[in-house]
Design brief:
The complex is a heterodimer. Chain A has helices at residues 11-19, 37-42, 49-60, 66-82, 85-88, 113-121, 127-156, 226-248, 253-270, 354-357, 362-367, 378-387, and strands spanning 5-6, 181-190, 200-208, 211-218, 278-284, 287-293, 297-301, 307-309, 337-342, 348-352, 403-413. Chain A is an alpha+beta fold. Chain A has a domain at 181-413: PPM-type phosphatase domain (Phosphatase 2c, domain 1). Chain A has a 5-stranded antiparallel sheet with strand order 2-11-10-7-8. Chain A is elongated and about 115 Å long. The model of chain A is unreliable at 87-97, 173-177 and 414-420 (pLDDT under 50). Chain B is an alpha+beta fold. In chain B, the strands form 6 sheets. Chain B has a 6-stranded antiparallel sheet, covered by helices on one side. Chain B has a 6-stranded antiparallel sheet with strand order 15-14-23-22-19-20, with no helix packed on it. In chain B, a hairpin with a 5-residue loop joins strand 12 (278-280) and strand 13. Classes of the chains: A alpha+beta, B alpha+beta. Chains A and B meet through strand 1, helix 1 and helix 2 of A and helix 2, helix 7 and strand 12 of B. Strand 1 of chain A pairs antiparallel with strand 12 (278-280) of chain B, so a sheet runs across the interface.
Chain lengths: 420, 409
């Protein structure tokens, strides 16, 4: 018994089918199709934009038939009065568009007597009536022709038409294209019910409504001098940033690291025993830049309720969470972790020490984000709420550290319509 | 002196003013002045409102962008002298009736490429409308091109219909007897079937039969493929060599009921299967076979077709058709109306996907109406489940919407 040879299609054939969009091996599979040749040919056209428009207008003006063009304006009022012939034939389906004109009996509607008398005296075939009718028709059509000519001239010449400003009151007085943003900031710190002293330190620098810096430091509690270290760091950082602002009128992400370096230098010069974490957040318009050392948290709640952790703490995998790998003081020179984020109007930015971040539930805040607006006292009330929390079983305080929280909200999304 | 013609700003130089002339216009071979060496066909038609509207619609469609196989107009311009010009790519190759004879596998390939192009046209909202050997170009390498879209039929009711119904030998029965004087999508299916019959057999379906016009009409309008009625010659390809599935499709394509005629997608799938099951016997005859084929259609010698190593057998219960699908790892098997014609509309086009992978099958329901699977005498709704191939040694019953099918390895 013979065994025939199987025919196999070659690869060029399969490629050709694929160029038509089909797969030889899988009938259900499709390939994209594309042939550039017609586009290369069309690109050769020497017609200018004006030519194309003239061509278009010529098409619209009745395919070069001057009689049709001249006739149409005169027919328009007649068509409007008598109705379009095709529609006029549709009497089988609905009543005619023009009901038959019937004169009411004069004895029933006396108020129309004078009008009807006048109408009856009119002679439609009299030369005066015909001239009056033709005159009015000629006048309206002459006006219409001038209007149409002006319109054609404007469109063929491509006269740029500026969009009129129908709502001028929505534009700002100074029509700048740059968006203007405004940050509402509030911050607070509490010693808490557990610690003997508050080793957190906090500073908010407001340079402008859209230009601010949050500085949050958490003095390490395990070693002495945490309070001094945190306060020294905040003072050095804020002093350095204010000096740069006075000198240059701006702050850049690099300035945050410069400030941290200054704080480290100040800690060394003062021979401080303690060390401190540092969270620096610089708000520039809709953008935030951050530089962090140690733990704590910087997070963003976006307008749609999504929570985005921003900062990565300097912890080591497998080591206790109270050990931090980078800080200010103690001759530490590990660079800060930095980053940049562009936000949207309605975003909340949180910078907090670990005393708050251990208890704060971002999701709850996100769910109720529309109820909150950053104003004086919000941060403190949040911390107070956390401070008052107790374990329902043992009655012990839930917090175990000082608590510091800074909240910022991008409340204004710009100064022109586009931003809204 | 070389004649120059500008069409919509594209400058052309006439090479052959008498390149071709048809009933609807005159064609010239031109060269693009700004893209030297590029030859195209410029056609001059007399301007009529319907012609102009249809041509502009076709140029907007720009079929050539889909595939170089479509020599369709890409730009047109109405001239003031009552003519309208359009520019189309130049098709390579020769008309089908001038193409040298080829072996069955290559003819199957040409048919498959041809129906792929027809499907591509359908998906873009039109059918060719004038399928004929003179409008189907075949290049030496077997690639297919379609020309002359003047008689196209748009599926958009706002586009005026063509004023032609195609060439006489290609007309459908309802057009021959005058009951339908306009081209339809189904009459296009008929034209395509005649075209494929000519490609595969190398002759018009009624060649060798009485050639009087009435006799030709009678043979074409029998409701089945006229090749059944032809006495097989010594050199003729027996239609059994095409396999049962293609012959059945041809019979349906010649049906007097236009709704029975298979569309290009059905043809494409059948031709693809045929090419995958195409064998060549020692006697030189190529044929489409399956596991039931026991003799060469050419020399009737006994043959054995090697079975595929793994094949999934499907049967539509209780007495529906049976299918066999080769199991290839990670090659998806789709069950539904697109792959199993004749299923009721409650079954989706893609209803159940079966993905073979390492002696297992992943069954995944993708249709609209639910799929049920019977396990231990109980029906369960199937969303996604793995079946080991050994479990398919015994038949497993599935219910695709309202249709029962049986799977067996």
């Amino acid at each position: 018994m013979d065994q025939p040879i199987k025919f196999t299609s070659d690869q060029p054939y399969k490629d050709r089918l694929a160029s038509h969009g089909f797969s030889f091996d899988d009938p259900d599979r499709r390939h994209p199709t594309r042939n550039d040749f017609p586009f290369r040919v069309l690109a050769l056209s020497t017609l200018s934009g004006r030519d194309k428009m003239a061509h278009l207008m010529r098409d619209r003006s009745g395919r070069d038939n001057p009689d049709r063009s001249r006739l149409l304006p005169w027919l328009v009022p007649v068509i409007g009065w008598a109705g379009w012939p095709e529609r006029a034939m549709a009497f089988d389906h609905h009543p005619p568009f023009m009901p038959p004109f019937e004169l009411l009996p004069t004895e029933t509607v006396h108020s129309l007597d004078r009008v009807l008398d006048w109408l009856q005296q009119l002679d439609p075939v009299s030369p005066g009536w015909t001239l009056a009718l033709l005159g009015s028709l000629l006048m309206t059509q002459t006006v219409a022709m001038f209007q149409r000519r002006a319109l054609l001239k404007a469109s063929v010449a491509q006269v740029p038409v500026t969009q009129p400003d129908f709502f001028p009151e929505t534009l700002p007085k100074t029509s700048t294209t740059a968006n203007r943003y405004s940050w509402a900031v509030d911050a607070a710190t509490r010693q808490g019910q557990v610690r003997d002293e508050n080793q957190d330190a906090l500073e908010v620098l407001r340079f402008n409504e859209d230009f601010a810096v949050l500085i949050v430091c958490d003095g390490a509690g395990g070693v002495g001098g945490g309070r001094e270290a945190a306060q020294s760091a905040v003072a050095a950082i804020s002093g350095e940033l204010q000096a740069i602002w006075k000198e240059t009128g701006a702050l850049t992400p690099a300035d945050l690291e410069t400030a941290i370096t200054a704080a480290r230098k100040a800690a060394n010069n003062s021979a401080l025993e303690g060390v401190t974490t540092a969270l620096l957040v610089l708000f520039v318009g809709e953008v935030i830049h951050f530089a962090t050392l140690g733990d704590g948290a910087i997070a963003v709640i976006w307008p749609d309720g999504m929570v985005g952790p921003v900062q990565v703490p300097h912890h080591t995998l497998g080591r206790p969470s109270n050990e931090i790998g980078a800080y200010i003081g103690g001759n530490c020179d590990i660079p800060a972790r930095t980053g940049t984020l562009r936000l949207e109007p309605g975003c909340f930015v949180f910078a907090m020490t670990d005393g708050v971040s251990d208890l704060f539930t971002f999701e709850d805040f996100a769910c109720a984000r529309h109820k909150y607006h950053v104003s004086d006292g919000l941060a403190d009330s949040v911390i107070a709420h956390l401070e008052a929390a107790r374990d329902p079983d043992t009655g012990a305080w839930l917090h175990s550290d000082n608590m510091t929280l800074a909240i910022a909200e991008l409340v204004d999304g710009g100064g022109n319509d586009a931003a809204h | 002196m070389t004649q120059r013609i500008d069409i919509a700003g594209i400058r052309t130089r006439v090479i052959d003013p008498q390149f071709g002339a048809g009933g609807q216009g005159q064609a010239m071979l031109v060269d693009l002045e700004d893209l030297s060496g590029t030859q195209m066909v410029l056609k001059i038609l007399s301007v009529k409102p319907d012609t102009e509207a249809r041509l502009k619609w076709l140029c907007q469609k720009n079929l050539s962008r889909l595939s170089p196989a479509f020599a369709a107009p890409i730009v047109c311009e109405t001239k003031g002298d009552g003519t309208i010009l359009h520019l189309a790519p130049l098709a390579s190759g020769v008309p089908q009736d001038e193409d040298p004879p080829r072996a069955l596998p290559y003819n199957l390939q040409i048919c498959l490429e041809f129906v792929c192009l027809l499907q591509l046209l359908e998906e873009n909202g039109l059918s060719h409308g004038d399928i004929a050997p003179s409008n189907l170009f075949i290049a030496p390498d077997g690639s297919v091109g379609l020309i002359d879209f003047d008689g196209f039929l748009s599926f958009d009711p706002d586009v005026p219909p063509p004023d032609t119904i195609g060439q006489r030998p290609m007309l459908a029965p309802e057009q021959r007897d005058g009951t339908c004087q306009t081209p339809t999508r189904e009459s296009g299916y008929f034209q395509a079937a005649i075209m494929m019959s000519m490609i595969l057999t190398g002759r018009y379906p009624t060649d060798g039969l009485p050639s009087e016009p009435n006799a030709v009409d009678r043979m074409i309008c029998q409701g089945h493929w006229p090749e059944h009625d032809r006495p097989v010659g010594v050199d003729d390809l027996p239609i059994e060599a095409l396999g049962f599935e293609l012959v059945t499709l041809f019979d349906r394509a010649f049906s007097l009921n236009p709704a029975d005629r298979p569309g290009p997608d059905e043809w494409r799938r059948a031709l693809t299967r045929a090419l995958h099951n195409c064998w060549i016997h020692d006697c030189g005859v190529a044929f489409v076979a399956d596991v039931t084929t026991v003799a060469c259609p050419g020399c009737t010698a006994a043959i054995s077709i090697p079975k595929a190593t793994r094949q999934l057998k499907l049967q539509v219960l209780p007495n529906g058709p049976r299918y066999g699908v080769d199991l290839v790892d990670q090659k998806l098997i789709v069950l539904g109306r697109t792959t199993m014609p004749g299923l009721p509309p409650t079954v989706s086009g893609r209803h159940l996907e079966i993905l073979p992978f390492k002696n297992k099958l992943l069954l995944r329901h993708v249709g609209s109406n639910p799929t049920l699977i019977q396990r231990n005498g109980q029906w369960y709704q199937l969303r996604e489940t793995w079946l080991h191939e050994t479990s398919l040694n015994a038949p497993i019953e599935l219910q695709l919407a309202t249709t029962l099918i049986r799977l067996l390895l």
